[in-house]
UniProtKB/TrEMBL annotation:
Subcellular location per the Swiss-Prot or TrEMBL entry: Membrane
ATP-binding in keyword set: no
Xref: InterPro entries: DUF726
The protein's name in its UniProt record: DUF726 domain-containing protein
Keyword RNA-binding: no
Membrane topology qualifier: Multi-pass membrane protein
GO cellular component entries: membrane
Record-linked Pfam families: DUF726
PANTHER family on file: TRANSMEMBRANE AND COILED-COIL DOMAIN-CONTAINING PROTEIN 4, TRANSMEMBRANE AND COILED-COIL DOMAIN-CONTAINING PROTEIN 4 TMCO4
Keywords, sorted A to Z: Membrane, Transmembrane, Transmembrane helix
């Protein structure tokens, strides 16, 4: 195994990543700078549609060619990896410039294209089988792409890319909705559950024999060289786990065979059930559930593994069953998440250290942690915070819950302080810090979503009303309690909380507001400073695995986005030392966090997607916030500026997505109810396994 690791990654197992960091960072900075500097000269000469399209098309082509030339010799493989994303970002920037400076001409160009492509009816039939549904998706998308770019000059691509993106999203939305209907019929879930329970009973895999493992490593290595450079951490864990399965014992001949060229792999002609079993066993392998001397070990479930397995499953079967494979992953995650929660409950609710898993269909039960008290003790201590968060939901007054949970989580904060980390020396502990479950008891997953709110303005607001939890949602959600989001601290931040909950016009005309401006400015700075501290402590809390083996999503609203930003920034520092990821997806809504600071983040610190949702009609961020600090350029605000355009987060990292919700969100306090459900759908944040 050591020889295999050294061959793939060098003597230092992280060397494959380290060698590419400088090149990728240079590419990111160069691309972003080129996009910011984009200009179109001689605008007055654009007096007809043909000249208009050609002029902007020339700038688009020249910019793409310039970036490609810069990296032709230095890092061509990295450019090819990000090429599509780069072209999309450049096209979007050009559309912003065209719309801002040549609005009437831009509309004239766009109008006939809209009419032409709106006539194309894109509707998937409601198949009863996920595989047939996926095949129809692939065929429909391929036909559309062929139609949209047929006989069009390359100089038109900066406009056509928009329609291609819209079509792909529309098809994916349809696929997700139809898939939900299919999986709710409970045809697939019992099969998934059976395979998971078979592994736990037999304590070994049925599909992963030595020959198959060798071929899987061959296939993964081949794909990683060509496509998977952005999930190398997950690739490393995949190789290490496959090559360390005890009963396989790969020898030197097996390792030599791995690097032989192979054109055909065993799973390419698998049936649906065979593919399902393979995916479930790979998921089990990477999810942290494993046996050691007949005793269950549950290790950290890394988002990097999650992201790699997602991409791997999109490639097997030549991508024909992409959504089928991803759907099976999601079901496997649900099954394993419930088993994980059952273990946590047993350990915390019983005095005994015996953990028993009951198999209802077979009417049998068996002990999981056999003769390994240390593994059981470690699991129990790591999952204590996760257990605390599930104790209190909506059965009591929120103010009382604040006090109880803050007291329970204080031990974790004290542990962080005792370690005396250099980055926290100048900061006091957060005044309040705890996590509380918003999810129903039945909803469990290996991925937890932490929701970070801004201000609570009602005197007795239930926590559940902060997050319009959808019972059909995949998200297991915890809310982060901190001072500015706490009912008990409302008086301390009364002025700034009122600003964030009232219309700008209403604030501006009130004399009392003008009289207390100095007080509210101080409140804002206090709240902003506390958000920064909470964000840093949240990073250390997550880095200590206090939520057990769970992977994490972050959702930030309003001032909560400041917490999310400083959490990510701190995690980047911590992950450079330890080389593993904690965060999967991130969603920001109505963000107070500075977009210029966000643009400088290294988004390889998350394995999934960073979504920034903003609205042009957000008056609080656009007009009221500058009264408190005009140095902040919030990512949730719309700003008319030729250099900035829409207040999106400018980054060439392919996992950064911006979403303009101006037509749906009419103000800062309108991110609620059905709007958030719509955001979850349109950003696809609601589904861990279909990321675009």
């Amino acid at each position: 195994m050591i020889q295999l690791q050294e061959f793939l990654f060098g003597k230092n197992i992280e060397s494959a990543i380290v060698n590419n960091e400088d090149e990728i960072n240079f590419l990111a900075q160069y691309v972003v700078q080129k996009i910011i500097e984009l200009k179109v000269q001689d605008l007055n000469s654009l007096n007809n549609q043909q000249a208009f399209a050609y002029k902007f098309g020339s700038v688009y082509i020249d910019t793409c060619n310039d970036i490609e030339f810069q990296f032709k010799n230095k890092s061509k493989h990295n450019y090819l990896m990000y090429k599509q994303r780069i072209e999309i970002v450049i096209a979007k920037k050009l559309r912003k410039i065209a719309k801002k400076n040549q609005y009437s001409m831009y509309q004239q160009l766009l109008s006939p294209l809209k009419q032409k492509y709106q006539k194309i009816d894109i509707t998937l039939s409601k198949k009863k089988n996920i595989i047939l549904l996926n095949e129809e998706y692939q065929e429909t998308y391929a036909k559309f792409i062929q139609n949209i770019y047929q006989l069009q000059p390359k100089s038109m691509n900066w406009v056509l890319i928009k329609f291609e993106e819209q079509l792909k999203k529309k098809l994916i939305y349809q696929t997700i909705e139809i898939q939900k209907a299919i999986t709710q019929k409970k045809y697939y879930k019992p099969i998934v559950k059976y395979y998971v329970e078979t592994f736990l009973i037999n304590q070994k895999f049925q599909m992963l024999n030595k020959n198959y493992v060798v071929q899987l490593i061959q296939f993964a290595y081949k794909l990683n060289k060509s496509k998977f450079q952005d999930v190398q951490l997950g690739f490393q864990k995949f190789i290490i786990e496959l090559s360390s399965i005890q009963y396989l014992q790969l020898n030197q001949d097996d390792i030599n065979q791995i690097f032989n060229q192979k054109d055909k792999y065993f799973f390419e002609n698998f049936s649906a059930k065979q593919t399902m079993e393979l995916i479930i066993e790979l998921f089990l392998l990477l999810s942290g559930f494993k046996y050691n001397n007949q005793s269950l070990d549950i290790e950290k479930y890394q988002p990097s593994s999650h992201a790699f397995l997602l991409k791997f499953c999109q490639e097997i079967n030549d991508g024909k069953w992409e959504f089928t494979n991803c759907c099976i992953l999601k079901l496997a995650d649900k099954v394993l998440g419930k088993i994980h929660y059952q273990i946590v409950q047993q350990l915390n609710e019983k005095s005994t250290n015996i953990v028993v898993l009951k198999i209802q269909n077979k009417q049998q039960q068996f002990e999981l942690f056999r003769k390994n008290p240390q593994a059981l003790a470690n699991f129990k201590s790591q999952n204590q915070a996760y257990y605390f968060s599930s104790l209190y939901q909506n059965n009591d007054k929120q103010q009382k819950i604040d006090v109880i949970l803050n007291d329970k989580f204080s031990q974790f904060m004290n542990n962080i302080v005792q370690q005396k980390p250099q980055d926290l020396k100048q900061y006091a502990k957060p005044e309040m810090f705890y996590l509380q479950s918003l999810s129903e008891g039945k909803l469990r997953s290996n991925v937890i979503t932490i929701f970070v709110n801004g201000f609570i303005t009602q005197s007795d607001q239930k926590v559940a009303s902060l997050w319009p939890f959808n019972k059909d949602s995949y998200l297991e959600t915890l809310v982060l309690g901190w001072t500015a989001s706490s009912v008990s601290s409302l008086a301390k931040y009364a002025g700034i909380a009122a600003m964030f909950s009232t219309t700008v016009v209403g604030i501006a005309i009130q004399p009392i507001f003008l009289a207390v401006t100095c007080v509210t400015i101080k409140q804002f700075y206090d709240a902003y400073k506390e958000a920064k501290i909470v964000g840093k402590y949240l990073a250390y809390f997550l880095n200590q695995n206090y939520l057990g083996t769970k992977s994490i999503n972050l959702v930030g609203f309003s001032l909560g986005t400041v917490i999310v930003y400083y959490c990510l920034k701190q995690l980047i520092k911590l992950q450079k030392q330890e080389k593993y990821q904690i965060i999967h997806n991130v969603l920001m809504m109505g963000g107070v966090a500075d977009k210029d600071l966000l643009s400088k983040l290294d988004y390889r610190c998350i394995s999934g997607t960073f979504h920034n949702v903003y609205s042009e009609q957000d008056g609080v961020l656009g007009y009221a916030l500058p009264l408190y600090n005009n140095a902040i350029n919030p990512c949730g605000k719309y700003q008319i500026d030729i250099n900035l355009g829409l207040n999106s987060v400018e980054s060439m990292y392919p996992n950064v997505k911006n979403h303009n919700f101006t037509q749906k969100v009419s103000g800062h306090r309108k991110y609620e109810g059905e709007i958030i459900q719509e955001i979850l759908k349109l950003t696809n944040f609601d589904d861990q396994y279909l990321i675009f």
